[in-house]
Amino acid sequence: MRIHRTLAFAAIFGVVVGLPVTAEWPITEKPDLDAIYRIKEEGLQRSTVMEIESYLTDVYGPRLTGSPNIKEAADWAEKTMKGWSLTNVHLEMWPFGRGWQNQRFIANAVTPRAYPLIAFPKAWTPGTNGPIAGEAVLAVIATEKDFETYRGTLRGKYVLPTALRDVPAQFAPPGHRYTDGELACGCRRAELPRRRRHHLRAGGRLPRPERSGASA
To answer: Considering the entire predicted model, what is its pTM?
Structure first.
């Protein structure tokens, strides 16, 4: 009994002693609402985020190390920061080696029918010094055995090393506007049965789920 009384007394004493400390906790800082409003107005009314993003992506584009693009982007960033009255803005250079820049790349199939190819050169690929043409072959090399299959047959040819992809026809639009029925049931489109999706795309309404006596 004495032990229980001692524990109860200790618990009550701790609560009583702790209350004044919590109640008298001082407010060390008063928020400067004027400064907060000024920051919000600067960001919402005079933001230059999209302008900066456009310069770094649309104007200067990809920026490989050592390329003219990264030098031009760095010069623009340095000039812009100095225009913001920032101090000690400077470029730090280091030895890297040869840079690379893609000035022009066009790929077309010419026979038996001409059509453009969607292709891009890998970085640091040497230039061709003008148009070149050659035979294109499909050679999917995925195992050691495949090397023996094509050994001695690919010299001087343009090798397409990736297998043809199956591109099925797509009749449903990629975008989907939620219907009143979908919004009412709170379901995501991926959770709806396929037949219900077709019904909803046709303009139908999703019936409300029936209530049951059990719940998870």
So the answer is: 0.51
